[in-house]
From TrEMBL:
Protein name: Uncharacterized protein DUF3105
Region (Disordered): 75-96
Lineage, uppermost ranks: Bacteria, Bacillati, Actinomycetota, Actinomycetes, Micrococcales
Pfam families: DUF3105
Cited InterPro entries: DUF3105 (IPR021454)
Transmembrane segments: 28-51
Domain of life, source organism: Bacteria
Keyword Membrane applies: yes
Sorted UniProt keywords: Membrane, Transmembrane, Transmembrane helix
Keyword Transmembrane helix: yes
Biased composition (Polar residues): 79-96
Length: 247
């Protein structure tokens, strides 16, 4: 057998190194291909989930966008307003007054807790809803609230989320539209009514900020209807309130 020369060894080592690099390139391409495939699968899954969620919202809105007359809504009320800047409960000079007896169901004005609901939530459930006295403070700041009978909470969950997103995008709302369950301890909704809108309106001089006449407004309905809610918010925008500039 011929003795291997230095040149032969160099050529053999070079060939082995070339083969190793080629194998490494193949492995790298396989890894890259696998990563691309995984990213594509994840992207498709995310897109499908987003599309599915949007479809659910569209379907939910469609289900509550029927004939306005079928919603069985009462005429909008004009309630005498009271309680502007009248804080009760913790941190006030009436700390033990933690349950206010409001003159209407639901309230459209009145005494309230010192701190409104200021989190990012726009739809509340029975498990996490603020107290009525807290939300009345939101009314004073220009919010419109859609109160709902607790019996519809589960079946309308998707509709509530979709409706809140749609209405809060309106310029008349300016992200000041809340949906919250009604607490029957404060009085029952009239027979056949499952939903109620309320807003604490006020005439505000835009040049001076001076607040003039105040009035509460409510509209109670048997069914949920997008057009009814939008029309109510347009009629009573966030800027018509005793303290519209507050959060």
């Amino acid at each position: 057998m011929a003795r291997e020369t230095s040149r032969d060894r160099r050529e053999r080592v070079a060939a082995m190194q070339a083969a190793q690099k080629k194998a490494e390139r193949r492995r790298l391409l396989v890894v890259i291909g696998a990563c691309v495939a995984v990213v594509a699968i994840i992207g498709a899954a995310v897109a499908w989930a987003v599309l599915g969620e949007q479809n659910k919202k569209d379907e939910a809105l469609s289900a509550i966008s029927g004939d306005v007359a079928a919603a069985s809504c009462d005429p909008i009320t004009n309630d005498p307003a009271s309680g502007s800047s009248e804080h009760v409960g913790p941190g006030t000079n009436q700390p033990n007054l933690t349950t206010v007896k409001y003159s209407t169901v639901p309230p459209s004005s009145g005494q309230h807790f010192a701190v409104p609901a200021v989190d990012s939530r726009r739809v509340y459930t029975t498990a996490d809803a603020p107290k009525i006295e807290t939300l009345v403070h939101n009314l004073e700041h220009g919010y419109t609230i859609l109160w709902y009978d607790r019996s519809v909470e589960t079946e309308q969950a998707a509709a509530f989320e979709a409706l809140a997103t749609k209405v809060n995008a309106m310029k008349e709302s300016a992200n000041k539209f809340l949906i919250s369950p009604w607490d029957p301890a404060y009085g029952a909704f009239p027979a056949g009514k499952k939903y109620a809108l309320s807003h604490w309106a006020a005439d505000v001089d835009q040049s001076t900020g001076k607040v003039g006449q105040q009035m509460g407004h409510r509209q109670l309905c048997g069914s949920l209807n997008t057009t009814v809610v939008e029309d109510f918010v347009k009629k009573f925008p966030w800027s018509s309130a005793p303290e519209p500039g507050a959060a």
